[in-house]
Amino acid sequence: MTPEPIRIDDQDDPRIAFYRNIRERDLVGRQGRFIAEGKVVLNVLFRQRRFAVESVLIQEARLAGMRETLASVPPGTPVYVASPAVMDAVAGFNIHRGVLAVGRREPPGDADALLSALPQKTVVLALVGIANHDNVGSIFRNAAAFEAGAVLLDAASCDPLYRKAIRVSVGAALKVPFAILPDETALFEALARHGFEQFALTPAGKEDVAELATADRAALYLGTEGAGLPSALMARMRTARIAMSREFDSLNVAAASAIALHRLWPGR
Q1: For position 34, what pLDDT does the model report?
Q2: Are residues 133 and 64 located together in one domain of the fold?
């Protein structure tokens, strides 16, 4: 059943306080909340039911096209509707999609609990120092497409629930389980405890990812573009490369993750 929309005409209405100054608050935080943006992302948010939804804010012109999506909104969730002028004034810029929701974060995920719950045959991604929101969002999208069991990130990597990362992931960041650990050593030790064979993806890798033989539980490490993965970390595991033209040295890390995940995908 589609909830009855609640009209908002005042940009200072306290009921929509968490939508105010979106870009600024992306940087300073939202007291345990996050912003989901766009129809596709809201479909994932509502249907996965992994995160609580506090409210929805829709531009009036978009309301008719959102009826099917709003039919799956969790019961009791207020759905606010506003004019473009009010939405833009609240957000602090032109919200051309006109579709927003506030979600509530869960307590920080426990990596050991997450890894122990995964099936025996699975692939996990480990991200080290990947601070670019577009790359993290794209990696989560690839993880969903190729059924990765989880994504582990070090504390230097971008927050997967940053608004832009969620948007680029087309909602995959709300679907693929993840946990954040302090650093690459903590990543390695957690994965080792749970029996994962660990691989570093690097242009200088000793093995071709297209020919990589792996154990049932495999973890693939991705590092920041340029510096790559720490050499001390790579010395502790097998290294893999993606074969490419000798005239060029590397791929974008998100593109590389797609190629490697396709090769390691248990569903192939």
Answers
A1: 92
A2: no
Average pLDDT over residues 235-253: 89
The CA-CA-CA angle for residues 147, 150, 155, to 5°, reads 145
Pair (82, 199) in one structural domain: no
Residue 1 domain flag: no
Cβ neighbours of 117 (radius 10 Å): 11
Q: What is the CATH number of the domain that holds 60?
A: 3.30.1330.30
Structure tokens at 94: 């032109």
Sheet strands (E) in the chain: 6-7, 33-37, 52-59, 79-82, 99-104, 122-128, 150-154, 178-181, 197-201, 207-208, 217-223, 238-241
Q: Do residues 57 and 18 touch, judged by C-beta distance below 8 A?
A: no
> Given CA atoms 267, 264, 157, 112 in this order, what sign does their dihedral have?
positive
pTM over 0.85: yes
Residue % of the chain over a pLDDT of 70: 97
Domain identity same for 97 and 115:
no
Q: What's the domain count of the chain? A: 2
- 218 SS3 class: strand
Kind plus residue range of the DSSP H or E element containing 27: helix 22-28
Number of residues that make up the chain: 268
